[in-house]
Amino acid sequence: MEHREPLTEDRLPPGREQRLLPRLAAEPGVAPRYRRVSADAAVEIDHIRRLLATMPGVEQAKGIVMLRRGVDADGAFTLLQRWSQDSNTKLVQICAAVVDAAGAPDGGATLRRLLRQRFPDDRAVAREPG
User: How far, in Å, CA of 128 to CA of 110, rounded?
Assistant: First the structure.
């Protein structure tokens, strides 16, 4: 019988992980760690999927705030983030409210009202036509 050195993560050849993972998982003491890494990866994949699902709404809200407030993308995100934290509301919900208000059939009155409500002392928002 051929003597094999035990496989460890640091000895795993690059690019051959998929083929060798079952063998690595069968090594004593490695299987529990392999399962933990797999579970961690599944959680991360779920997080990325949720992020990608909410990203368009956040980007739309950023664009609306950029246009209405005259700030750059980072500034718009900071405003939305602060709004979320101050109101203890999820960022995705704040963004959905901004996007919904911008799409209301009242010519932007709902959005102006929402922004005035959030930024009552902001002269730029208060002077906006409509």
Answer: 13
Contacts of 75 by beta carbon, 8 Å cutoff, 6+ apart? 66, 69
Regarding pTM above 0.85, the answer is: no
Q: What value, to the nearest 5°, has the Cα angle with vertex 66 and ends 75 and 86?
A: 55
Virtual torsion, Cα 20, 23, 29, 33, nearest 10 deg: 40
One-letter amino acid identity for 75? G
Beta carbons within 8 Å of 71's beta carbon, 6+ residues apart = 65, 79
pLDDT in tens, 29-86: 666 666 666 777 777 888 888 888 888 899 999 999 999 888 899 999 999 999 999 9
What is the sign of the dihedral through the CA atoms of 8, 11, 16 and 20?
negative
